[in-house]
Amino acid sequence: MSDWKRFTQEQKIAYFSMEIGLTNEIPTYSGGLGILAGDTIKSAADLKLPMIALTLASRKGYFRQKIGEDGWQEEFPVEWTPETLTELLPTKILVTIEDRDVKVQAWMYRVKSPTGGEVPVLFLDTDIPGNMDQDRRLTDHLYGGDNEYRLKQEIILGIGGARILDALGFSIKKYHMNEGHASLLTLELLNGSRRPVEDTWDERASWDTHRVMEQCVFTTHTPVTAGHDKFPYELVKRVLGEPVPIALLQELAGKDLLNMTMLALNLSRYVNGVAKKHGEISKAMFPGFEIHAITNGIHPFTWTSPYFVTLFDRHLPSWANEPELLVRVDAIPDNEIWDAHSGAKAYLFQYIEETTGEKLDPDLLTIGFARRSATYKRGDLIFHEIDRLVKMGEGKLQLVFAGKSHPKDIPGKQLIQRIVRKIDALKDKIKVVYLENYNMDVAYRLIPGVDIWLNNPLRPLEASGTSGMKAALNGVPNFSVLDGWWIEGHIEGVTGWSIGPPPTESSVEVNHSTEDVEDLYNKLEKVIIPLYYGDRQKWIQLMKSAIGKNAYYFNTHVMMRRYVTEAYIR
User: Confidence band (pLDDT; 50, 70, 90) for 507?
Assistant: First the structure.
């Protein structure tokens, strides 16, 4: 038996995600969705869960970011070669795109855990001799191209992924769709479950939707309407054809447009949002569907700085695979917590000096803000009143920013440009740096190395916000708007601080920007800065609470145990 075939001997959970972030060497991720997918797979390996994951090869990655002197983002390919890091599986399958056959192959990467668990990840690839040149490029760019390119990619992921699992001999217990990008797999399952039905007025009776539902789990991640992929049926007919009758597809996915989220909702027995609040928002967006909530997490070992790994290993053995042990962090002496944090801070500052030439002061309170540059995340909110910021922060504050904007998101690029211009305006008063090309390696240095993690999105558009969980894991308190996971993790003055009013709204039309700015400045000036410089012991207790009250629970080990009991084995 070929070595890879041993993975086919046990029924699997098939986890489909358009992006997966496992290592920096495999740049098949753009941000939080992909990093979550990678952390999910790593925890599945740690817990020895029978899982297989599928994504696209994305040979040219997302992009490498370069910020010009004028603050404008430029994009360059970040290429990788599956041939050097993965193994080619021997089976190819065909998908039909625009009435022609397109070959798809799979490269396998093994995610191995120290526990002995192992999860195979399949990278689907159309760069195969015999395919037309335009088809060979279909798995090159993550989120690249136009609507047509996106639909073709989603055919390869959903239909191609389901077919290649079948061709390789995998037995699948559940298909877990991480966002709607993969929901065309339901059409492949529908075709496989079709029943012969003689003359009947109900054409749908021949398509066993209930059997498909029993096989499918769907996780929705975005509370932003524009974030749900929709395709005109004219495009669908031309590119996809009719794997099921268009009338049935319209019944399942929307009358006017093929809504990938709606298709997944209609053909999944279990559906969940990624935080309690996000579950509520999703129910409001899609009334009539039963939508649960399983709050996202992060993979503990991946995101703990080397200084805290050493500390936790010494005081809390087995913490990496039993993160609930972090609740005992109070047993670690204060000075050791502070020394570990100081090490993480020095590690970040060394990286900043090497890449930007800027030398930051390790004694100053350092605020970090790094995430995808989208306008609703309000990356420049802290600069709303420059004079007030300078008055409270000169000689006391320094800031570190990072984040990419989607190449076609002009407002997101303008946001980066505004932040870069604020950096120039604050020169010689408050030091601010913007780190280029935010990726897994940069995040690994940045998040543990700051003193506070800032997050101020427009409510209720933050589905979860896993970067804040990474901060808590490293003893960095969150200073955040009450949205996403922070509603569940926040205890005022204990695990961090809130920004703005309580999370009562369910619509983005309720805008608290004025209140948010005022609260942000007030708490910085009157609570956070005085505490950092005036009471080291209390600050360290805050750091311990972030670890012991947040990190012990908001991790992918806890998350995966919930998926198993609530979604996979029911």
Answer: low
Thinking of the domain 300-554, which architecture would CATH place it in? 3-Layer(aba) Sandwich (3.40)
| Global confidence as pTM | 0.95
Residue 133 burial class via C-beta count within 10 angstroms: exposed 0-12, middle 13-18, buried 19 and up: exposed
CA distance 17 to 220: 11
* Pairwise CA distance, residues 332 & 500, whole Å: 33
CA distances in angstroms from 117 to 44, 46, 160, 205, 299, listed in the order given? 8, 6, 27, 42, 15
pLDDT at 226 over 70: no
> Quick one: pLDDT at residue 199?
44
Render 168-204 in DSSP notation, one character per residue. HT--EEEEEEESGGGTTHHHHHHHHT-----S-S-GG
Helix spans in 68-219 (H): 82-85, 133-136, 147-155, 161-168, 185-192, 209-215
CATH number, domain 3-65+75-194+206-268: 3.40.50.2000
Confidence at 536, pLDDT banded by 50, 70, 90: very high
DSSP secondary-structure letter at 25? T
Is-contact 161 16, C-beta < 8 A?
yes
| SS3 assignment, position 90 | coil
